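Troubleshooting: if your tokenizer reports a length mismatch, compare your output against this known-good record of 390 residues.
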Amino acid sequence: MYLPFFCLVLFSCGKGGDGNNTQPQKDPQISISDAYLFEGNSGTTSFPFTVTLDHASSKIVTVYYSTAEGSAGSGDYTSVSNQLLTFQPNETSKTININVTADDIEEADEQFSVVLSGPANASLAKSTAVATIRNDDTKAAFNNTGFDAPTSYPGYSLVWSDEFNGTSLDASAWTFETGNNGWGNNELENYTDRPDNLSLQDGKLVIHALKENYGGSSYTSARIKTQGKKEFKYGRIDIRAILPKGKGVWPALWMLGSNINTVGWPMSGEIDIMELLGQDPTKAYGTLHYGASAATHGQKGSSYILQSGSFNDEFHVFSMEWKQDQIKLYIDNNLYLTVNSTDVGSNPYPFNQPFFFIFNVAVGGNWPGSPDATTTFPQWMIVDYVRVYQ
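Known-good structure output:
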């Protein structure tokens, strides 16, 4: 009575069975790795990108690759277009090498991409690799072109200068001011005394404004002064400099009255030999501040606009002729502001006393506003010399 059931089971178990369970081979998926390397200082640096299949294939697999610009442009690396990459059967890894142009100029980390397209016998899982060219340099980019001042004037003698020809800042003349307290202007930078933010290069003083997280700030820079070391009353002052640019970048070459610690600002007086708003690098400002108190603060100033180029392109000379009861400001020996003691009205005239220098590059603040997406870093103020004649 059980035989028919047994035969039914055997018949059902064997129905349709041919013993071959092989499935069609699935095409592999292709991925490409990112690259994150230092640029190097000369020649070219090879950036490798690893392209992998997620499993071996018995077929030949091909895919095309091209570079695409990002913050790094084609001059920063050797661009390629529609290059064929071939995997022989059972190969699962290949390397693409892209040459990056190396130099010794400080710049922000930059990026470009390598993009895969047109795969054959495969599909794309990760088709774009991002290459980050890391900065490993400390030099500013500049040459010595631009206006230059004479080295003597009739009736004057050179009483002090800094030509910045050494390897470090002259501590007998200069002191660093550091910190991120806003400096009375709601500035965003943290001033440091690090070589990253101030260096001497090729006979020039370089203040580096950087975008980096440091001490609770998103930017760093440097600020130096001659207070208590080099203070002057009257004379001719020449400062030769290249200025930074970009929204929210605020360089200044200026002076404060030596009595500021006893009388405060603006009673001490302030002479802004040069200020510039980085969003308009063709226009520089000169301003004198005065007043018996903050409530009576007054100022006299003017601006100078270049007819061609910008203050970021090459050197310009910012000068002051200073005598009793009068100050005149010049750019490239062009007079653009005269202030006499009678111009301050009922306020005391504070400019017949010794003053000291301050050089700095601020980032952000009440006047320039904050950097935006158009602002690039690093930015540099490059000072060739400061000279005082009396």
